[in-house]
Structure formats: C-alpha cells, structure tokens
Amino acid sequence: MANDTVQRNTRWVQALDRLLQVLNLDEDHPIRILTIEDGREVVVVQPNAFTVSRIYATGRPDGARPHGMDSYYEYYFGKLVKYEEENGTREGFELTEEEWQTLFEESFYRYTRYLLFAGIKRWDDVRRDTDTNLAVTNLAREYAPSEIAWQSYQYKGYMIMMNSIAKAELSLQEDDPNTALQQIDVGIQQIGEFCGECLREEHGEAENITRERYLSNLIEFRSDLEALGTEDSDDDETDEEQEDTDLLTELEQLLNEVDTPDTERE
C-alpha cells in the first residue's frame, strides 16, 4: 500500500514537472494567458521559482461557480433582489456574519486578480473587478452591522483609486486625455467624501492612510496626465518596467498569503 502511494505521488510530481516545462515560464515571461474550451481565459503566473498559480480572468478568480452563479456576490445580490420583490422594500434585508465573510474573502481574491491585471495593463478587467468590490463594500455598508461592514469599507479609498486609474487608462488607450482627467477628478472627489466619512465616524487612521496614500496617488496621477507628452518616452518605458516589477513582487507576497485570506487588505 505504501509503495502504491509513492508511485502515485511520483506520477503526480512528474506530471507537474512536464506541465511546467510546457508552460515555459521564467523571470522574463512569468505570465501566460490560456483560453479553455468554455471560452474563459485562465492566467497562469509564476512570480518565483517555486510558486505557480492559476487565476480565471472572469467570474470568481478560482473558477468556482457557487450555487451555479459566477460569484457569491451575484448570488447574494440575487437574494437581495428577491427579498425586495417579496417585501416591496430592501429594508430589513440581512446576511449572516459567515455570509459577509464569504463575500469579503471573495473580494480579496478579486483584489489579487486586479492587482495582477494592473501589472499587465488589462485595464478593462481592473475596472470590472474594482466596480464589483466597490459594490460589495457598499452593500455591506448598507446592510451589515457596522463592525462587520468596516472590515471591508475601510479599504474603499484604495478601491476608488484603482477604479479611477483603470478608467483613466482606458480613456488614454482611446487617445482621450480630457476624459481621463475627468475620471481622475471624479475619483479625487469620491476619496475626499470617503475621508470625510472616516473623520465623522472617528476612523482617523483610515482617513490618514487614505489621504496620504490613495488621494495623494490620484493627485500625482493627475499631474502626470496634465504633463502628458512632455517627458521622454524612454523614461516612461523605464518607469513602466519598474512598476511591473513592483506589482509582481506584491503579487508574490499575496499569493503566499492566499491560503488564509482575511478581507481586502490594501
């Protein structure tokens, strides 16, 4: 029996070794995007020599379909819609603490994905995932007890920042810098409103982090947009390469934590 187990383990390891050889991932090409039979894209990423992960590009990042739906958010939002149809109001709708934690865990997986997609400039995917995570945290804000909602809501400033940058980058891809500036201005206003909420509710630390990091980043991004075209293109490419390297390093850290996720931990 023991020998059978060793033989089976050997076949598994050999199969994994062959698969890694076929994927041919290395430091220069740590990511491959594969299309599977059902039409979905799967991102295979190897941020270091010993870690390989696969992330589905749509739906849940792990490819699961809870209750036959694309995500737990879609499933629980469907419950909200049904509740409203049956009661004529959304007032009184609630989820259990475990259900909220399931939503927050799913948001963390989605956050890991949009961090990866930001690194490879898939801005439409970043916009989609940040839209969904914002919807999750706003849902919690409205229907969950405050101490539960805050586990996710404290990161809203980061979500707004990434959502605004994604929208601006999409406008830049369409050669529309004016709309990109407008997207950033909307994000700056939204983060300012969030900072006001934090101060009114005595979450000074969250306000400070949001203002010094995320608001500051958007203001700097806006300045870069205003100066668009004035810097040497070679310098821009160098900056982008450094940004990609930094994002992959952060992704590696996240993938190492993914077995025990908490909430969206920006």
Plain-language structure description:
With 266 residues, this protein is mainly alpha-helical. The protein has helices spanning 2-23, 72-87, 97-119, 123-143, 146-153, 156-173, 177-200, 204-226, 233-257, and strands at residues 31-35, 41-48, 51-56. The chain has a 3-stranded antiparallel beta sheet.
List keywords for this structure.
single chain; three-stranded antiparallel β-sheet; 266 residues; 7% strand; mainly alpha
Annotation field: number of helices: 9
Instruction: Identify low-pLDDT runs.
Output: 258-263
Q: What distance lies between the first and last C-alpha atoms, to the nearest angstrom?
A: 47 Å
Describe the biggest sheet?
3 strands, antiparallel
In order across it, which strands form the biggest sheet?
Answer: 1-2-3
Q: In total, how many beta strands?
A: 3
In percent, how much strand structure appears in the residues? 5-15%
Helix and strand content put the structural class at: mainly alpha
State the order of secondary-structure elements, H for helix, E for strand: HEEEHHHHHHHH
Helicity, as a percent range: 55-70%
**What's the Cα radius of gyration?**
21 Å
Shape summary: globular
Q: Give the mean pLDDT.
A: 88
Layout of helices and strands, plus pairs?
Layout: H1 2-23, E1 31-35, E2 41-48, E3 51-56, H2 72-87, H3 97-119, H4 123-143, H5 146-153, H6 156-173, H7 177-200, H8 204-226, H9 233-257
Helix pairs in contact: 3-4, 3-5, 3-9, 4-5, 4-6, 6-7, 6-8, 7-8
Quick summary:
The chain has 266 residues and is mainly α.
